[in-house]
Amino acid sequence: MNIFRLLGDLSHLAAILILLWKMWMSRSVSGISARSQILYFVVFITRYLDLFTTYISAYNSLMKIFFLSATGFTIYLMLVKFRSTYEKESDSFRIEFLLLPTACLALIFNHHFDVTEILWTFSIYLEAVAIFPQLFMLQKTGSAETITAHYLFALGIYRGLYILNWVMRYYQEDFFDPIAILAGIVQTVLYADFFYVYFTRVVSARKNMELPI
């Protein structure tokens, strides 16, 4: 494992912990898209089918268990415990527009035509666009809480670091996975506009804090 893979995993871990902390401390899930979280849960289920059949390392197994359980718990908080604060009307992106195309792509473009490989490929394609409902919700409401913005920023950093991970693996191991790399690039591009808004707001907030009273 190279440094970019490790930092990418830690960024992904931080993003989920930030989101859970925000929900638990505020006792609210406002501004968060349950549809995006459901898509991420589908991503992890289809990608980690080998959890109980193939052992790679303790680190690998623990990360898989964390992502599955933490995302499942996030969905529970949103749709059960703090359901009264869930903004269902604003979270209206039709996820079938993401599920069907990515499923078709996985059937057509994959490394091997078998069930496990197709589901893994599907998870890669779906993860690239799973953030769409969240970004759509932000655009619809026109605002984002600071914690929600930090969550999205950490997710974007995670994807950017994973691209560097694939580049390093190519030079160090002569390993190249076009499906994972292209999907990662698409996902990172989706965050580009958000990154601009995030940095301008952070800089603006810091300037306001430095102004004399």
Automatic annotation (TrEMBL):
Species, as recorded: Pristionchus pacificus
An example molecular function term from Gene Ontology annotations: ER retention sequence binding
Subcellular location as annotated: Endoplasmic reticulum membrane
Membrane topology classification: Multi-pass membrane protein
Keywords assigned by UniProt, alphabetized: Endoplasmic reticulum, ER-Golgi transport, Membrane, Protein transport, Receptor, Transmembrane, Transmembrane helix, Transport
Recorded family membership: Belongs to the ERD2 family.
Protein name (record): ER lumen protein retaining receptor
GO cellular component, one term: endoplasmic reticulum membrane
One Pfam match: ER_lumen_recept
Main location: endoplasmic reticulum
Matching InterPro entries: ER_ret_rcpt
PROSITE patterns in the record: ER_LUMEN_RECEPTOR_1
Coiled coil (residue ranges): none
One GO-annotated biological process of the protein: protein retention in ER lumen
KW Secreted (keyword) present: no
Superkingdom, natural source: Eukaryota
